């Protein structure tokens, strides 16, 4: 089996066996990865990589946006939806105008969201398994670079999301 087929089979298995929380973390990780690759493409003036990675990042943000459930807390869902719409607009603008500073802010927001989600996953794990349960392993919540949270929360939402039904996911290797 060629290497790409092996990687796709592994990814498919990982997705099919993941919890909803892990799937969301995988999407956040991929969004950060493609946003960083978009920034590298802007800095190196690689138009093809810029287009490819910017498109993937925007698609992932739209997937995250589509997975928001209004049922548990409509007000919170609307604030999270507003965050993802802001990130999406900034991604489009940064890609079209090749604005590295704007893209750095998007990366910061995505990393902050990912760290918030990781903390929520820890809380969910503790609640499911009792207070003494271990936190998710690095494999469950990979971090590709140190995450530095902003000194203050720049957006008016507490960083909580639902764990209800999800829209169909599409993740590519």
From the alpha-carbon coordinates, what is the Rg to the nearest angstrom? 16 Å
Could you state the oligomeric state of the chains shown? single chain
DSSP strand tally: 0
> What can be said about the biggest beta sheet?
none
Low-confidence region ranges? 140-173
Strand content: under 5%
The average pLDDT is 80
Helix content: 55-70%
The string of secondary-structure elements, in order, is HHHHH
Shape: globular
- How many helices in DSSP terms? 5
In angstroms, what separates the terminal alpha carbons? 16 Å
- What structural class results from the helix and strand content? mainly alpha
Describe this entry's structure for a reader:
It is a single chain. The protein is mostly helical and 173 residues long. Helix content is 66%, strand content 0%. It contains 5 helices and no strands. α2 runs antiparallel to α3 (47-66) and α2 runs antiparallel to α5 (100-129). The two termini are 16 Å apart. The model is unreliable at 140-173 (pLDDT under 50).
What secondary-structure arrangement, pairings included, does this model have?
Blueprint (H helix, E strand, L loop, with lengths): L2 H15 L2 H25 L2 H20 L7 H24 L2 H30 L44
Helix pairs in contact: 2-3, 2-5, 3-4, 4-5
Summarize the structure.
This protein has 173 residues and is mainly alpha-helical. The protein is 66% helix and 0% strand.
Features:
66% helix; single chain; disordered C terminus
């Amino acid at each position: 089996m060629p290497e790409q087929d092996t990687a796709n089979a592994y990814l498919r298995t990982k997705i099919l066996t993941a919890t909803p929380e892990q799937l969301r973390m995988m999407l956040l990780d991929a969004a950060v990865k493609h946003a960083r690759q978009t920034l590298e493409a802007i800095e190196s003036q690689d138009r093809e990589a810029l287009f490819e990675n910017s498109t993937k990042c925007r698609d992932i943000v739209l997937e995250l946006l589509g997975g928001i459930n209004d049922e548990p807390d409509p007000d919170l869902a609307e604030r999270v939806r507003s965050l993802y719409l802001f990130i999406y607009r900034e991604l489009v603008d940064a890609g079209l105008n090749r604005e590295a500073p704007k893209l750095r802010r998007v990366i910061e927001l995505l990393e902050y969201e990912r760290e918030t989600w990781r903390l929520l996953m820890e809380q969910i794990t503790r609640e499911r398994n009792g207070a003494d349960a271990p936190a998710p392993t690095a494999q469950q919540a990979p971090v590709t670079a140190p995450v530095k949270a902003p000194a203050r929360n720049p957006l008016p939402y507490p960083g909580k999301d639902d764990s209800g039904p999800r829209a169909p996911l599409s993740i590519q290797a």
